[in-house]
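Same chain as my last thread, 326 residues:
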Amino acid sequence: MKRKSAVFFVAGLLLACSLTAHAAPPQTLTRTTLEDTEKKCAGADDFRVTYVFGTSEVVIDSESARNWFVTRASLERMQAETEEDPKPGSGRFLIGGEECAFPEEVLTENGFVTDAEGNLIVSESAMYDSLRQIFDQYNMRVEEDTTVFYATSGRAVFFGAEPEPIAEVDLDKEFDILLKAFCEGSKEVRREIHSERTRTGIDAVRGDYIEVDVAEQMMYLYLDDELRLSTPVVTGNLAAGDGTPAGIYPAINRARNVALINNHFANYWIGFTTRGHGIHDALWRNTFGGKIYQTAGSAGCVNTPLDMVEQFYDLAYPGMPVVVFY
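reply #2:
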């Protein structure tokens, strides 16, 4: 897959949204109602691009485009996370269907960031990232004995044989087509990527499950495919060779007031391997998430804040899948 400018675009809102840290602080725009904002969001109702991957069809339309608008929440989050110090005016955005730099003065309208005239701002990097995720997930051939799990982050995680790409794709060219269709409000653009059958693997994890994303140091709980809980965690110490084992496991048991190794104690325990790995609180920690697990992680368990593990404990049950991946 060709990605000559992927580094520029796929930086996502991390770089793009950080620009306003050096521009005028967002001010609240009060002259419009929520109904007015909804009309702006729905301004590309006729926009629709369909990608055909063998027997699978994936649609990007105005609902997808809502995820490309810069919001106050994403702006503040990315400003806090970025370590870059770009100058105002760099980056690529869409305002009123026209490509432009990020405005130096912005306002906030019902949670969305706008320019000084109240026009919503679209991040091209967010658009590119959503396109990349689609091709990463669907432009592949998966063996029958491979389980495909779609993570909260949008990643496709494979347990079993590695997938093979179906077709060589110029992602930058596909982005240009998507960008043109969006700006022109095209009613239907169909992209036949490949005629062979794709994604033959089994999406085995559905409904209720716990997801442990080791790379992101995040844990999630889903009921009926609906996200109910999320929390930062600390998994096994990589430097010590104690990394939490990747795989799909059934929750074995739940227990209260459990004695752990190294004279530690857990108020809540959800076991998921026969080797003694589990999800539990860790009162000796006051920080979770980040890169702690790389050099100061657990002995292999998933350390969780006390207030959050209590909620996971209440909703988990024996047999609930626990999906662990890197």
